[in-house]
Specification:
Blueprint lengths: L3 H9 L4 E4 L2 E4 L13 H20 L11 E3 L8 E3 H17 L4 H17 L11 E3 L11 E2 H17 L3 H13 L2 H5 L8 E3 L3 E2 L11 H9 L9 H4 L4 E4 L2 E4 L10 H5 L12 H17 L42 H5 L6 H15 L4 E2 L2 E2 L3 E2 L4 E2 L2 E3 H15 L2 H6 L3 H9 L9
Antiparallel strand pairs: 1-2, 3-15, 4-5, 6-7, 7-8, 9-10, 11-12, 13-14
Helix pairs in contact: 2-3, 2-14, 3-4, 3-5, 3-14, 4-6, 5-6, 8-16
């Protein structure tokens, strides 16, 4: 019987179909449905937004380790030394995009990618291959008693695997593969049937499991497709997919901010794919439409909310970082607008999202637009503007803007044989071809 490692090695070499256990995999080349057709002025606007957003990942990465700061801060930056492992994943993908767009020289990108992957592979503390959520950007030491985070490690891995495909460099490709192969998904899975949120040395495994639809689709697919320590494909069927109904919209959702419908879609291309449960791309379209309707429905309380100005997801606030959104109403909504809620929705509602993003810049100008692009959050009713940029919020805007423009991140990431194999194993098919 062929091992999973041998199967994926053959897939990487271009073998079309390989038998493993009772499943015959016929893994297609990445699919290329057409991306959004944008007017020249809209494409130029997204180019300016993307260039500015990339600056955060260029300026806020440590020159030796490559770890990206959790916050992009324009003032008091010397004391800002905490990295988010997920921000580093967005930053690695941003490097791929920047090379493709010509924003950085290839040599600069290669050097930083090598340094980052060497640090991840050889220096940063890990537990069974997984990383602490927050770390010191200089040493990799655990910060804030944070957990070894399964989802944040998965976001990091998406960036690592993007670099493996972008750069024809032997060291980068070998390091990326070693980082992936070292991750012990079976340790996180235990007796199953669901993956754990994480682990701490003080308490062991966290009580929470990834048991209900959210941003975790990338986590399960990476775990199922892994060459080493993979979990069974049946885990994909184990988590719940509750249906929410709101003002005529019906879609799979849970009580969480809008970003849960965005993060996995930044890398995994779910367009025209169905796993027997849902078309998750179309599901995110419906969830975004419902969120837009929810926000405009708040116009009686906050008159600035409208079809031209909407979007709330986890972000900075006058009281610090908050988890807010809807429907239903979640968190202490105070009238703030969170631009990445719309930026991360660009592939789902391109014209509606562009209307909001352009409205933000044209109406509010420098109050909300700076060196790193649009502010993390602001409140038109009180004139409050967040001074810090949450890196993952800037990152989701950057990646989804490019996917809306060209599909580049999707096309790059879906070249990884593990990701395509995982989607086949759990039952994804193009309905038009079945």
């Amino acid at each position: 019987m062929m091992t999973r490692r041998a199967m994926l090695t053959k897939l990487a070499l271009g073998v079309a179909g390989v038998a493993s256990a009772a499943v015959t995999l016929r893994v297609p080349e990445p699919w290329h449905p057409p991306v959004t057709r944008l007017a020249p002025q809209d494409d130029a606007f997204l180019d300016a937004l993307s260039r500015a957003s990339f600056q955060l990942f260029r300026e806020c990465a440590h020159p030796r380790t490559g770890m990206v700061k959790n916050l992009g801060r324009l003032a008091d930056n010397k004391s800002n030394t905490i990295s988010s492992i997920a921000a580093t994943g967005f930053g690695l993908t941003a490097l791929c995009l920047a090379v493709e767009r010509g924003w950085v020289k290839r040599g600069e990108a290669l050097d930083r990618t090598r340094k980052t992957l060497r640090f991840l592979r050889n220096e940063i503390p890990n537990e069974h291959g997984f990383f602490y959520h927050f770390i010191d950007w200089r040493t990799g030491a655990r910060a804030w008693q944070s957990e070894v985070s399964s989802i944040d490690s998965a976001i990091l891995l998406c960036g690592v695997l993007s670099c493996r495909q972008q750069f024809a460099d032997t060291e980068i490709q070998e390091l990326a593969t070693q980082i992936y192969d070292r991750m012990d998904w079976q340790w996180l899975f235990g007796a199953g049937p669901l993956l754990s949120h994480g682990w701490t040395p003080e308490q062991g495994f966290l009580a929470s499991r990834w048991d209900t639809y959210c941003e975790h689709m990338m986590l399960y697919l990476l775990a199922i497709g892994a060459r080493e320590h993979a979990i069974p494909a049946s885990a994909w069927q184990a988590w719940l997919r509750p249906v929410k109904r709101y003002e005529g919209f019906s879609y799979i959702d849970t009580t969480a901010p809008l970003f849960i419908h965005q993060y996995s879609h930044a890398w995994f291309d779910f367009r025209r794919q169905h796993d027997g449960h849902a078309d998750y791309f179309q599901n995110s379209v419906l969830a975004t439409q419902a969120h837009r309707q929810f926000c405009t429905g708040l116009g009686g309380e906050f008159p600035h909310y409208s079809r031209d100005l909407w979007g709330i997801t986890a972000s900075q606030s006058p009281k610090g970082y908050v988890v807010w959104g809807g429907p239903p109403r979640l968190g202490p909504i105070d009238g703030s607008i969170v631009p990445c809620a719309v930026g991360g929705s660009l592939p789902f509602l391109p014209q509606d999202s562009l209307t909001v993003l352009r409205h933000l810049r044209e109406r509010f100008g420098r109050r909300v637009w700076g060196r790193f692009g649009l502010a993390d959050a602001f409140n038109p009713g009180t004139d409050w503007v967040a001074t810090d940029f949450v890196a993952i919020n800037t990152g989701i805007t950057l990646l989804m803007a490019e996917n809306a423009r060209t599909g580049f991140v999707w096309d790059l990431f879906m070249k990884n044989p593990e990701t395509r194999a995982a989607m086949q194993l759990v039952g994804f098919r193009d309905p038009a071809l079945v």
